[in-house]
Amino acid sequence: MLEARDITLGYRPGDSVLRGVSLRLAAGEWVGLSGASGSGKSTLGRLLAGHHTPRRGSLRLDAAPLPPHGLHPVQWLPQVPELAVNPRWRIGRILAEAWTPDAALRRRFGIADDWLERYPHELSGGELQRVAVLRSLAPGVRYLIADEISSMLDAITQAELWQTLAEIAEQRDLGVLVIGHDQALLKRLCQHQLRLENGQLWAEP
Amino acid sequence: MLEIDRLALDFLRYRGLWRRAAIPCLHDVSLTLARGELHAVVGASGAGKSLMAQALIGLLPGNARLRGSLRLDGELLDATRQAALRGKHLALIPQSLAALDPLVRSHHQVTWAARRAGVNAPRAAAERALTDVGLVGDSARRYPHQLSGGMARRVLLAMATAGEAEWLIADEPSVGLDPAHRAGVLEQLRRLADAGKGVLLITHDLRHALSVADRVTVFHAGTTLETAPATAFQGRGEALSSDYARALWRALPDNDFARPAVHEVPQLA
Fold first, then answer.
1. Chain A residue with the nearest C-alpha to that of B256
2. Per the CB < 8 Å rule, is A153 touching B204?
3. Secondary structure of B156-201 in HEC code, one letter for each residue
4. Strand-pair category, B167-171 with B198-203
5. A16 belongs to a structural domain
6. Which residues of A touch B43 (CB under 8 A)?
7. Among partner residues A158, A181, A182, which is closest to B251 by beta-carbon distance?
8. CA–CA separation, A24 vs A41, rounded Å?
9. CATH number for A141
10. What pLDDT does B260 receive?
11. How many structural domains does chain A have?
């Protein structure tokens, strides 16, 4: 169980993006998160993955504090994969930085062997997004924060990516927070949905 | 009537010092756009949709080699005619926000566009175009870097509509917008079509294009597979003629959300 309790966080003094947000995500659970642009969805996502320290409140994994060093058990996947990879590294090295997925798993994500020798700009956005997702699935990762990871993909590529991810999440009992605007997609993927508004979380009916 | 007939496009690239190789990007691209029509072009990224837009408006890079024909109202649309019509009768809403001048306030850029289009009172026309896209007061006077991605996109839309262009090519005008603004942009394109303009909407978002389009052309791997009325996208897609179009329709999250079986899409890139 990943649990955020009463989180307050802002970028400027006296101005909070999140105001007293509490959230629980269980292993194997899929939760959707929507809200207008600028409402703090990505801030919350990054906070859960340890990119931000809350001003107030606590973040716990199975009732223990999250480890300060090493591989973080909660991984954040951003909308634009180009920003998540080193443009001067080849794909093979980018993957190896986190872990070494075997050939069978690479094939399930449609990652051809010759991609390992390519640079990020030599892949399309959808192809690079698959690499970023596979990289985030290192052993030891328990929760994923998927922040608009498919909004730039066509419908077929989108369906392929989510189905592969769903199969792996089921095998490994991963909990997934899906951030997005597409209600049809969230409804399809998630058991329940939350909405972020004015710095607070609301349950969607 | 705007007609694209069997358009093909190669890029010439040097292989070594002397030899030049042609890299094919588009082949057999055909579609028509009538006045008063909103025609959506959908397909995966990299399928060549934006290249077709650039070919229509005559803004391809120098190493592009074009075959096939473009016609506007029955007459050949060549480079000279494209240059004469561009920005006046033929307007492009580009995909990249880099098309905005970073050093000029938004409302000035829209005024410039109106002046280039030959409007009598460019300042008033710019004001009207900005109001139409919901940018009023202070937000219309900001520099591009002070705008959110969605606002910058609407400035580009205002620039294309400040003149009296009869033909609009909108390249991914709603990407990155939240649902309310996306609906606003698409509805405005619909209104422009209803006012008698021909609108080509290039997008990867089939679901939302269907809510405003009259016809849809499906692009795949550099070619137009089929053109179908928007109403053909329903049920299990029985009314669609190509397997790829059907797979694209069924893959939507509120349909089957299914990845296509291998035999359905023989050469899925």
1. A159
2. yes
3. HHHHHHHCCCCEEEEECCCCCCCHHHHHHHHHHHHHHHHCCCEEEE
4. parallel
5. no
6. 154
7. A158
8. 15
9. 3.40.50.300
10. 67
11. 1
Helix (H) or strand (E) holding B210: helix B206-210
Question: Domain of A95?
Answer: 29-52+72-192
Contacts of A193 in chain B (CB under 8 A): none
Mind listing the pLDDT tens digit for each residue in B206-263?
999 999 999 999 999 899 999 999 999 999 899 999 999 999 999 999 888 877 664 4
So what's the ipTM on this one?
Answer: 0.76
Contacts of A184 in chain B (CB under 8 A): 207, 252-254
The answer to whether residue A115 sits within a structural domain is: yes
A184, B252: Cβ pair inside 8 Å?
yes
Contact B50, B171 (CB under 8 A): yes
Residue B269 has pLDDT above 60, yes or no: no
Can you tell me the mean pLDDT for B11-29? 86
Q: What percent of chain B lies above the pLDDT cut of 70? A: 96
Is the confidence at residue B179, as pLDDT, over 90?
Answer: no
d(Cα B25, Cα B221) in Å, to the nearest integer? 8
Provide the pLDDT for residue B267. Answer: 43
Compute φ and ψ for B152, nearest 5 degrees: -60, -40
Query: What is the average pLDDT score of chain B?
Result: 89
Helix, coil or strand: residue A144: strand
Q: Give the contacts of B156 (CB within 8 A, at least 6 positions apart).
A: B93, B94, B97, B99, B100, B173
Q: Average pLDDT, stretch A70-98?
A: 92
Instruction: Read off the pLDDT of each residue in A83-88 and give the average, rounded to a whole number.
Output: 90
Measured between beta carbons, the chain B residues lying within 8 angstroms of A155 are 206-207, 248-249, 251-253
